[in-house]
């Protein structure tokens, strides 16, 4: 079977790219089509493929400034042409990948990380007051109606949708008027589950880990811990790094920047709990934390409701510093009944092998018609 894999862009290696990596493993002959590719940024399984890019690839500075070209992305994905005949097109999409034009008769299965979040329900998180300058906000408001129409129209060109969570399946129904089955994305649990369960939490700190993107709401964690007598360690960087890292922070908040992947299991294990502030489409970090036997303090919306249980974490109901601070204060009493083995068992439900088997079943279903 000849398969064309379509992915929005290959610049960083995060959750979406880990999904692509797992798909490459079970579809060894697949080619990859993407808007832009930064050579060497991906896993060997991805880098070893034939990778076809759009005209955006040739723009100066594109690998660091690609978000600025969002209005051109629909045109760029539609300009990509399949190089040969394929039995299946499988897109991995959180922006425009599902909009690739496929030949008549070629089935298109789309794995959806999210509808174009910055143009739908999270628009204000990206372009609200204080998030960007006035010219960028004005431009975003100008292109938003057109991009939403394009996003909805191109959904009609997909034969079958798979969402990465029930939360995203509901958005696919609400924004595109389509139904989607659910296959949770893979989590590389093996290296996190290798650390012993005994002795976890000895570092005494709470951990926030992720990209410094607006919707991740690191600002909530920083503000909450200003008034708490507890240490917060922050791991990551991203587009909000200058704004958030430049704030005057109290001594109990420590920025670690990016850390080596090999250091993450121990970092999770020594934390008292992971602080998870975003309304995430799915969210891999809560599962990584649970695989090491550590609980999660999570915002009670989005994918966290599918990955964290009342036995493996506690929830705060409002996305505010006050609500998070109250949850951290409750944590001392809740922690007395926590069992690390429950957290690891919960994480093991989201293995790479389970994802791959479920996706092969989805492929079989679309090919059988």
Could you explain the architecture of this structure?
- This is Mannosyltransferase.
- Residues 15-191 form the Glycosyltransferase subfamily 4-like N-terminal domain.
- Keywords: Glycosyltransferase, Transferase.
- This protein is of the alpha/beta class.
- It folds into two domains: 3-186 and 351-368, Glycogen Phosphorylase B (Rossmann fold), CATH 3.40.50.2000; 190-349, Glycogen Phosphorylase B (Rossmann fold, 3-Layer(aba) Sandwich).
- The chain is 38% helix and 15% strand.
- The chain has helices spanning 15-26, 44-47, 62-65, 73-79, 123-127, 134-155, 166-176, 190-193, 218-226, 241-245, 264-270, 285-291, 304-307, 321-335, 340-347, 352-368, and strands at residues 3-7, 31-34, 51-53, 88-93, 108-112, 160-163, 180-182, 206-209, 232-235, 253-257, 273-276, 296-299, 313-316.
- It has a seven-stranded parallel beta sheet with strand order 3-2-1-4-5-6-7, sandwiched between helices. A six-stranded parallel beta sheet has the order 10-9-8-11-12-13, with helices on both faces.
- Helix 9 (218-226) packs across helix 14 and helix 12 (285-291) packs across helix 15.
- The protein is globular and about 60 Å long.
- The protein starts with a strand and ends with a helix.
- The mean pLDDT is 93.
């Amino acid at each position: 079977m000849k398969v064309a894999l379509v992915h929005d862009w290959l610049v960083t290696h995060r959750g979406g790219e880990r999904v692509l990596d797992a798909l490459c493993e079970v579809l060894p002959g697949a080619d990859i089509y993407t808007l832009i590719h930064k050579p060497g940024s991906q896993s060997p399984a991805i880098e070893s493929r034939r990778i076809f890019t759009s005209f955006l690839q040739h723009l100066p500075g594109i690998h660091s400034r690609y978000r600025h070209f969002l209005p051109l992305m629909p045109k760029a994905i539609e300009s990509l042409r399949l190089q040969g005949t394929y039995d299946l097109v499988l897109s991995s999409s959180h922006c425009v990948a599902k909009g690739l034009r496929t030949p008549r008769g070629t089935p298109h299965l789309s794995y959806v990380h999210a509808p174009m979040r910055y143009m739908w329900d999270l628009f204000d998180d990206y372009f609200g007051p204080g998030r960007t300058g006035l010219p960028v906000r004005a431009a975003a408001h100008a292109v938003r109606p057109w991009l939403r129409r394009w996003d909805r129209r191109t959904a009609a060109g997909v034969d079958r949708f798979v969402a990465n969570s029930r939360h995203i399946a509901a958005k696919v129904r609400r924004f595109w008027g389509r139904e989607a089955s659910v296959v949770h994305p893979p989590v590389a649990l093996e290296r996190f589950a290798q650390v012993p369960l005994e002795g976890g939490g000895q570092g005494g700190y709470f951990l926030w880990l992720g990209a410094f993107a607006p919707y991740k709401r690191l600002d909530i964690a920083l503000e909450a811990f200003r008034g708490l007598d507890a240490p917060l360690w922050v791991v990551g960087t991203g587009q909000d790094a200058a704004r958030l890292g430049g704030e005057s922070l109290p001594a109990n908040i420590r920025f670690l920047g990016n850390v080596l992947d090999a250091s993450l299991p121990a970092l999770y294990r020594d934390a008292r709990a992971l602080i998870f502030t975003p309304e995430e489409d799915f969210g891999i970090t809560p599962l990584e934390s649970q695989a090491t036997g550590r609980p999660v303090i999570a915002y009670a919306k989005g994918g966290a409701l599918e990955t964290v249980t009342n036995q493996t974490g506690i929830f705060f109901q409002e996305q505010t510093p006050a609500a998070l601070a109250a949850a951290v204060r409750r944590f001392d009493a809740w922690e007395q009944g926590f069992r690390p083995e429950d957290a690891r068992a919960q994480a093991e439900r989201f293995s790479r092998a389970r994802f791959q088997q479920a996706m092969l079943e989805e492929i079989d279903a679309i090919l059988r018609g």
